[in-house]
């Protein structure tokens, strides 16, 4: 069944006039109408979120967020543009897709953080700097790196141990290139100050 057929079948299981009436009452901030609408359509809308997210907790979060949006935007609904169920399904779908993207970004952030932390746990003799540091300097560099705040330290490690360009780092941490430059400059300054002592 295609997406259009799915939504069409969904529409047929609900009375559009009833849903439109509930939305009109919700637009007037009728909480009982919101409760009635929730009981009527929540299982179907939650199913839409579940198809996209495949996670019960995330689907429930999206459903709650969508009903909050329905509460605030019911006065924007126009029957001439779409059927009530189609409109509500679109709200859920967009929220679910946003949640999916956000979860993907968070997962990538966690993976990058874990990579950096693993690097910090490694003996620095394994780094590309192994030819230019002796045992004493290794310990000092390691100690000084740990003294930096996480953002500066991670930027330095990605640039000088992993060999990422500033642009690559910006893409990975989803920050502007200028921000990465500032972090690198600040981090290198503090690192040099620490190593000078």
From TrEMBL:
Residues 140-191 form the RNA polymerase sigma factor 70 region 4 type domain. Keywords: DNA-directed RNA polymerase, Sigma factor, Transcription, Transcription regulation. GO terms for biological process: DNA-templated transcription initiation. One of its GO terms (cellular component) is DNA-directed RNA polymerase complex. Residues 37-105 form the RNA polymerase sigma-70 region domain. SUPFAM superfamilies: Sigma2 domain of RNA polymerase sigma factors, Sigma3 and sigma4 domains of RNA polymerase sigma factors. Belongs to the sigma-70 factor family. ECF subfamily. GO terms for molecular function: DNA binding; sigma factor activity. This is DNA-directed RNA polymerase specialized sigma subunit sigma24-like protein. The lineage of its organism: Bacteria, Pseudomonadati, Pseudomonadota, Gammaproteobacteria, Oceanospirillales. Transmembrane segments: none annotated. The keyword Zinc does not apply.
């Amino acid at each position: 069944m295609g997406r259009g057929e799915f939504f069409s079948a969904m529409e047929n299981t609900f009375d559009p006039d009833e849903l439109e009436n509930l939305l009109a009452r919700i637009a007037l901030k009728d909480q009982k109408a919101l409760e009635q609408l929730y009981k009527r359509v929540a299982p179907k809308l939650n199913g839409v979120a579940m198809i996209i997210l495949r996670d019960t907790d995330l689907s429930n979060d999206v459903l709650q967020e969508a009903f909050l949006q329905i509460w605030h935007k019911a006065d924007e609904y126009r029957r001439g543009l779409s059927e009530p169920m189609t409109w509500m399904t679109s709200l859920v779908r967009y929220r679910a897709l946003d949640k999916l993207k956000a979860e993907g970004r968070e997962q990538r952030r966690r993976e990058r953080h874990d990579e950096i932390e693993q690097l910090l746990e490694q003996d620095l003799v394994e780094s590309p700097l192994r030819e230019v540091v002796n045992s004493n300097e290794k310990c000092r560099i390691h100690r000084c790196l740990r003294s930096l705040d996480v953002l500066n330290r991670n930027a330095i490690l990605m640039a000088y141990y992993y060999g990422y360009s500033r642009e690559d780092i910006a893409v990975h941490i989803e920050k502007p290139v200028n921000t990465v430059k500032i972090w690198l400059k600040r981090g290198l300054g503090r690192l040099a100050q620490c190593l000078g002592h």
